[in-house]
Fold these 3 entries.
Entry 1:
Amino acid sequence: MHELMRAGEQLGLSGTDLQAFIKEQQTTEREEREFERQAKKEERGIQERQAQAKAEEQKRDIELKKLELEIKKTELEARLEVFYRRSQNTDEDNDDDVDNDEVVVRRGVGCHSSVKGPKMSPFDDRNDMDSYLHRFERYTLNCKIG
């Protein structure tokens, strides 16, 4: 306020003119501060909306990846079930072909003896999918399937 008084006096104002000048300058400064506050408030609002949009996008990406993994898991479980059923089906002749889901598996001589070999346990969520599939591949090679 003292600065405004000095500025008004330097302009040659005194009395009521000086008071009017000071009030006018104070009103102008108050409006400028209010404008700055509103601009900062709007900027914070924009930043918050951007952060929310980014968080929602990340959430959608995570959900999409979860769905993709669930689909892949379901497909692998279905393939595993097909392979498991084929490995359990030892009553067929050696020359028979089994065609299911565009996969052809021929039964080998090794799994068709009168003594039944070891059977694989079905896959469950506690097992690691890669190690289970590796075990399955070894089993099929030992039984001469495929």
Entry 2:
Amino acid sequence: MHGGGNNSSASGLSASEIESPPVETDLELLGRTVHAVSSALTEPPKEGDRYMIYDVSFNPKGCVWDALIVVQVKDDDDDENGDDKDGDHGNSRSSRSNRRSSSKVRGSSKVRGSSRSRSQSRSSRSISANNNGGSGDGKNKTFTFPIRVTCAEDDDVANLSASSGLGKDEPPRGKTYAVDLSVIDDSVHHPISKWSSAEATEHRDDIKNAMEWVSYGVRRSMARSMFPQFPEGCQGKLFREVYQLNKKLKSGTFSTVCRGVHRATGRQVAVKCILRKKIEPSVDAAVFEEVLIMSGLHHKYICPMIDYFEEDRCHFVVMELEKGGDLCERLNEKGTYSEQDAKLVAKNVTEAMNFVHLKGFAHCDIKPRNYLLRSKRDDVDVRLADFGFAQHVHAPNSLTSQCGTPFFVAPEVINRKPYDKKVDMWSIGVTCYLLLCGDTPFNGKNRQQLFRRISCDEPAFPDDKWGQVSDDAIDFVRKLLAKDPAKRLSADQALAHKWLADVRLSQRGLEASEEILDKRARGSSRGPSGKIPKSPTKGDAQPPPLVRESSSKRSVSSKIEGARDRIEKVRTARSKSRERSKAARDARSKSRDRKSGGLAPGPPPPKPSPSSAISATTSNGRSVTAATQTTDTDLSSRSAADENARLLDVIKAQDAKIEKLERMMKRMMQPDDDVHEC
């Protein structure tokens, strides 16, 4: 459990109500960093760990920890199995082992500071440089070596800022603390300096893995120390006690996304399940950092995280359920987007990315599969998801890890150059290119050819695919696909581009017109005295409605009024049809009375016309006039019966419509506090 906040009614809180920790002072930041490192070094080992830390001592003067690491050496068979396992899982996120673990204070635009741990290759360099003898424990297949962890104020960010030539308008950066891990020489108990060259070579990989393992532990502990107060997670409750897992939605290399239901409220959610025994320590530490990043991002175009549960066997990340699928699936159905729809998607995507960049993060894996649609009926309402590769950008060109999706990765990542937030804008440019023409700007038979074309070729805009696209859209995509990151549009510049500025201006005009119409409607509903008159109602008079506070309430009230009008029209039509059916029944009963000569006197029959008096005769001399009159009476009675049946069918259909509208009104009149539509 971490962070502070209110512990009341956690199940009813939304993602936007997760409180962020207050802004820290430099002393509080240093204290939290020291506590996180101490917790990581004293954490008990888990089942299957090959490393154990003991004899930890802390010297407050200089913030230095000294400890001993016991490493269990693998057999040859274990090494082969480990290589196979690393071949399955290590390639995709091998770069995460060198990634910085950063903790950024949220809740304020001024960042007070951050902390990071880095495991450098000092262990390998120190062992190789000495080339002296040593000792190992061959019977137990373990060996021990000492390490030193140092926490000090970091000047690396200041050096990066100075080398990048930031302007005077750049906001001052907060203080940061670096946690360095290194192997030391204990000449009395564990004399590493006396190791032979063969022993150093034999233990080099084990020492490197052990140092990375310690680094991952520090990263996890740093992320935990920055967690906010989650609604129900990380408070001693098990996930199965709060949520129920249902249908599996999709699965990936490290995680599975399932549909879930909150047991108390019945709210449907999406749950990302990550089995910890199937992932490496680097991926496990990355999950904590992903949760930390997502807990501080609250935007209308970002899929919000609702809760998080950390258990020994699995991570459970609870998010809002988006029912429309991802943008890649929708693009496969549509083929291409119209320019207007593509413009709206680009605007939403760029707004979300601008928010992420202002928070100091880079997503590093923008692609259509990471944009989720809220509804199956809407093609443009997208939300950004999957922050598994997201990183904190300490300074311009401060990121070096190799990550991303081949068709959407930026040239600087392929060429192994330092990069920053501009890699996301390149990926947005590829996404817009794909939306407008249905294909990616760069293709290849294999990954090597694809990367060569991304690095060297310029994007093409052939007339057969781009002939119907405007010049502003082509200029927007071309500026996002600039090879030089300095010439590439940033998120702010992309939103100010002419192609997207038209959408923003039209939306602002629409919002302003809606506000004016709403004010006029409220003003016209008031009487001469300035008060809202009461509308006549049945029974007790209800108080007049208050001024509506949100657009969602206004839309619900307008739907209710429209439903009431439709119900009144249907009721009027039903009453008229009933009157017509009653008249048809009366006419049919009168015709039966005239035919049978009943007791009820009827009006005298009309006088026959001279033409009708002439009747044909048969061979027996009898007239057929009476038979003809009987046939006409039967036909009229049958037509009246058919008309009556048709009217009854119409009445039944109208009754069904009225019942359906009444059910809709009941649902709309219910409070929408617990309704979470995706």
Entry 3:
Amino acid sequence: MLFRQVTHDDLGCASYLIGDDDAGVAAVVDPRFEIDVYLDLARYMGVRIEHILETHNHADHVSGHGRLAVATGATIHIHRLAAPDYEHAPFDDGWELELGDVVVRALHTPGHRPEHTAFTLVDRGRGDEPWAVLTGDTLFVGDIARPDLAIEREQGAREIFASLHDQLLCLADTCEVWPGHLGGSMCGGPGLDMKVSSTIGYERLHNALLAEPDIERFVERSLASLGPQPPNFRAIVALNRGVLLTTGVEAQPLAPRQVDMKHADGALLVDVRNPEQFDEAHIPGAVCLTALNAGFGTRLAWITDRAQEIVLVGRDDADALHAAKLATAVGIRRIAGFLHGGMTSWREERRPVAHIETLTIGGLHARWPQLQILDVRERAEWDDGHVPGSVHMPYHDIDDIPAGIDPARPVAVLCASGQRAAVAASLLAHHGATDVVHVTPRRRRDLAAGRAPDRALGLALLVIAAALGLAIGLVVGSVGGGGAILALPVLVYVLGEPVGPAASGALVVVAVAAAVGAGSLARSGQVCWRIALTFAAPAAVGAVVGTLAGSAVGAALLVLLFVPVMLVAALATWQRARGGLDDGDGGCPRPARAPVLAAGLAVGLLTGFFGVGGGFVIVPVLTLWLGVGFRRAVAMSLVIITLTGIVALLSHIAAGSDIDVGVTTALALPTAVGAFIGTQVSERLPAAALARAFAVIVCVVALLLLVDVLALGGPPGA
């Protein structure tokens, strides 16, 4: 028994090579347009492809049956109701085809289309019962086929119900299910799984629509989940029913000048690079449609006019040629050529480029009231939740500036993941919008929950944030540091912030908490203002420089570099505590200005570079280097952290970092309360005890960071 599944990952289609290697004969079921893979497999397995079986006239991709028939001389078999124009051998329900010891039996399963047929496979060398069924477009893993591509959709759903219950579900539970489509295909519903196979028994138990015994409820449920129909499907069906299509499309290389001329003559420029590259620089008027992710062919068929010429633009020639093959698979054949050498050749000739601004959901907050918002998801996604005040139009329906959008005003375009928004943003610019912003959400749930750009936390997370914030504040207020380095993992791991926005949010948290703590201790005269301000000025400068330097280094490397600094500071502080510490009542020392300036600059560089850790360095420097008593060092550290934290935060914002104000506020407020309580506690404890507590906390945090990077790969987004 020879059995191989071949998938077309861009379209989510599956085809099959089946046969008997002893008899040397094979058949291909539902061949894709690019047939090399079947010829290679047949040669490798030592079999002849003598038969081509079609489950139906496909509506989402161009079949390769014509090319395969010419290449092998194989006979094409399809159900009598398909009525194609090409030469074929028609069959009816129950028809059998013998391939050595392998028997293929036809099960007529109308619904998706009237001619649709599934094929059971029997290996007579092992048994007489079917061991597998090729279900085509009737039963998928986790879902069923859509019923609206050939007949009235309610009638189609009723026929699918009958096909499932009268044909497929009569097979043994152990019979394997090998479908014609996988996740990503337009021929199924939202339950369509990426798994390549299943069994009748498993689907009977876990496929929600199969478990529905009432035909009326089945029809209602199956129609409720339908997405938009595959684009161009009537034209694709016509191609698959018509005279055998045996040739592909040869895309011709074009120099930049020729691309410009084609564009001027009305050709659509389709840029197949990734959205980031497109947004940075693209040919004016081009449309962004990456061929690097699944679904390129389907999306291309949606946004193009089949009568319009297309010019493809890639990173290089290979990109464009790959995209041309994907386009041909969905019947897009008017490919005028591709930009030879990719965008590099265009830039080398210093030809004009356009760009599209990008913004994350977090960064959208500050500009939200001034921006128009266009949501380009499907209607069902929009109904589940959307940004208040936004305009809705699915990206594939944009053939002009949507109603409600002023092309002269800035418009932000968003979807769930940013991919559809990339296409839609380029379409708006193509149709004349002058200021388009491509929004790239950090989380799919931002839009699915209908949230505005700031994320609202649930009650449980608010309680957790309050408890953790209070604990962080107690540490900050009692030992003069640790706010940002403790707040960062809370924001990332507990509250779900990406590392970039979390680092900026941590600076907000620590600046607020340190300001509250500094104000509390300043009233008791613990702050040596001359040293604190002299220290803070170069520390602020160092924080700016350190932020710029740290932005060029990966988060995981930053942690590995910072952990030794933390451990040295902790061990030095512990050692000093063993020898006795000044509680801070001996007055302010008067160190020379140069050491204070140098110490401030060094601490600022570390704080800006790592984004966290200022307090864990400031206190040891003040006590061990400048001779400040530990209690005074804690108070002064809070003053310095407040000033340097504000400067570092402004640097983060200037560098383009986002802050989720709602999430950050939820943590900052209880942290400020904890900082105030911590300062009251610190005034009642001996300095040596505070120093030892400081050293222990620093060591624990350092080790946790080290474990996170080495064992877990670092924080999300690092």
